[in-house]
Amino acid sequence: MGSGQKVAVFGAYGHTGRFVVAELRERGLLPVLSGRDADKLKALAQEAGLDARPASVEHPASLDRALAGAAAVINCAGPFATTAAPVIEAALRAGIPYLDVAAEIEANIDTFAHFADRARGAGALIVPAMAFFGGFGDLLATAAMDDWTAADEAHIAYGLSSWHPTAGTRTAGAVSRQRRGGRRILYTKGRLELRHDAPPTLEWPFPEPMGPRPVIGEFTMAEAVTVPSHLSIPEVRTYMTVEAARDIAAPDTPAPAAVDERGRSAQTFLVDVVVRSGADERRAVARGQDIYAVTAPLVVEAVDRILTGRTHASGVASAGEIFDAPDFLRALSPHITLELRP
Ligand SMILES: NC(=O)c1ccc[n+]([C@@H]2O[C@H](COP(=O)([O-])OP(=O)(O)OC[C@H]3O[C@@H](n4cnc5c(N)ncnc54)[C@H](OP(=O)(O)O)[C@@H]3O)[C@@H](O)[C@H]2O)c1
Question: 117-124 contacts: CB < 8 A, separation 24 or more?
Fold first, then answer.
């Protein structure tokens, strides 16, 4: 890589945006910093020696200025219920690919629903949820499928050691809860269902050394949108370690704190994905550190592949559909360690 192409980052001074900016620079791309707060943006621009272009979703012309000359845009500013559509519109006007890191299920559904036809018609590429939740689980499920074209079930179990949420994560959760009227969401029988009952607590057999752990079942995340968008799997189930689920539910859990020179927190993750067809099972397992930090190599690897033509689709598409999933996942080393077990 190292093409020096400009990539606009909307929400550049947020926690995730900063990781994305650093990753773009590390890989020889030129971040164009954008966001709504001119002061925060200026401070980051001075620190990084980069170009800053304040923009607001209420002012399309400001977004056009932010995206001018960029080869792609990455939207890291949530809630995406507010930011995704205006930034996608600007990307379509500029004729450049759009990627975001939205974990909000409803916002991701909206992106597919509102932009699929227009993006396909324009030959544009829009990639929602190109992040730890959404894109990563989809890549793992797609890699685990290997040559299967359909499966009965996909199980995505998140073994997070803890989950210290950012302000953006808390806001995203609140927006999604409000949009679904306090109900929870489940992907079953080939569609999304809203439920009033409590989710189950059960034990998930994570691979050693983690081993079996209590998890909240039906802890539905963005994979309920990304996986069924291109894989024929009628049941998609997500699980979360109870410690992490407790952290994210508690109002006083602190924000993530850096423990290394990359700014990563001490949080570790293991993502265990099992796809099942009849009595046969296939598995993909990934391990790493800090779900916010790892979102940067995920979305920047995606940008790199898009800018170098290594894609299978256009329109609105999930990571597993656009990219060669096993090859993509292997390219994330050393940020993740990967085991594919056919
Ligand atoms: N799918 C995943 O795995 C994944 C991973 C990482 C992050 N995310 C999502 O990404 C989002 C950001 O997370 P974060 O950790 O970076 O949180 P953060 O540090 O709180 O940053 C949030 C950013 O969004 C900006 N923002 C909020 N509302 C905006 C609006 N209306 N217009 C423009 N900018 C706005 C904020 O700017 P101000 O400071 O000006 O408010 C800030 O730059 C969240 O929605 C989070 O759920 C998802």
Answer: 118/92, 119/92, 119/314, 119/315, 119/316, 120/314, 120/315, 120/316, 122/92, 122/95, 123/314, 124/91, 124/92, 124/95, 124/97, 124/98, 124/314, 124/315
